[in-house]
Specification:
about 325 residues, globular, mainly alpha, 14 helices
């Protein structure tokens, strides 16, 4: 409980800092005027694209899960929706644990195994975003701070990928190391940790399935392009009509930026990084803030509503989610 509380406060303080940085030197009158005069005719298309992005991500997760168990796309989408809803209302991306818990419970798969598939998904996300960033950097000069963000993300995702590959191909050694390390404190916990590690590594089985890897990567690319299109469409509402690579770059930096622990729904971090990228292309901060607010709502509200509907349809309770929170 104490650990969870500390994590929550760190997330809230981080968001508060980014909110201050976001609102610094903003002309609130201009922001209000931009929100009032925006052409909201593009909003329904933005909402549809936002939901489509999550459907595409559901197909991606289905391919990651395929080597473990074949699951219907409707079942996968319902759990993805609940997971994103939980991410939007709970701190520290706890929705990922909720998603692993629910799909494991529904389909009779180990929770550790399903959590590993979500880790694989996040690696696909990271590598796809870095792929886009590399492509853009080949044709357009990027500021130093974006290069540094890209370098840090590259080190992180490549290191994680290599580490998991080593664990997967040296599975027995990895399990023994964990068991021996934990056995110094408790033999019972060591045995449990060994079983959990074995289950977790079972979730990395996609590494041995080239077709599923290819399809998962393809759906990652399509999903991020669909999200970038959402950024572009909502930008049109505010007269932000920049080259197509700009929304892609914004998607990359915003989603790498929101890896920083923050309050539920990535409040503050989302707006800060969105405005920071648009500033490179001379979009006035007050206008960029109005765009970021509406865009954040489009990405946040529809999937949260859909997730809530599935949440009640699955007869889940917030007390059950609390159990998941406390167990992690």
């Amino acid at each position: 409980m104490k650990k969870s509380s500390t994590r929550l406060w760190i997330s809230i303080l981080a968001s508060a800092l980014f909110i201050v940085l976001t609102l610094y030197k903003v002309d609130f009158q201009k922001t209000g005027e931009a929100l009032e005069t925006a052409n909201y005719i593009y909003l329904p298309l933005g909402v549809m694209l936002s939901l489509l992005t999550n459907i595409i991500r559901s197909y991606r997760w289905k391919y990651v899960l395929n080597p473990i168990q074949k699951i219907s796309i409707l079942s996968v989408f319902s759990v993805v929706s609940i997971g994103y809803m939980a991410n939007n209302i709970l701190p520290a991306r706890l929705g990922e644990f909720v998603r692993a818990y629910i799909i494991g419970k529904k389909e009779g798969i180990s929770k550790s195994t399903t959590l590993a598939t979500i880790v694989v998904e996040r690696i696909f996300d990271g590598l796809t975003l870095l792929f886009f960033l590399t492509l853009i950097s080949l044709f357009f000069p990027l500021p130093l701070w974006i290069k540094r963000v890209g370098f840090a993300a590259t080190v992180f995702f490549l290191s994680l990928s290599v580490f998991l590959l080593i664990l997967m191909f040296k599975k027995t050694i990895g399990i023994r190391l964990v068991e021996r390390g934990v056995s110094l404190f408790s033999s019972y916990i060591a045995q449990r940790a060994s079983r959990l590690m074995d289950s977790f590594l079972s979730g990395l089985v996609i590494i041995n399935h080239k077709k599923d890897i290819l399809m998962a990567f393809l759906f990652s690319v399509i999903a991020w392009l669909a999200e970038a299109t959402t950024y572009y469409v909502i930008g049109l509402s505010f007269g932000i009509d920049l080259p197509l690579y700009v929304p892609v770059l914004t998607v990359v930096i915003v989603n790498l930026g929101i890896m920083i622990p923050s309050a539920p729904g990535y409040v503050g971090t989302f707006e800060f990084f969105c405005i920071s990228v648009l500033a490179i292309f001379s979009v006035e901060k007050s206008i960029a803030l109005s765009f970021a607010i509406v865009l954040h709502a489009v990405l946040f509200i529809p999937i949260t509503i859909v997730g809530m509907i599935y949440f009640w349809k699955e007869n889940l309770s917030f007390a059950e989610i609390d159990t998941v929170k406390l167990s992690h």
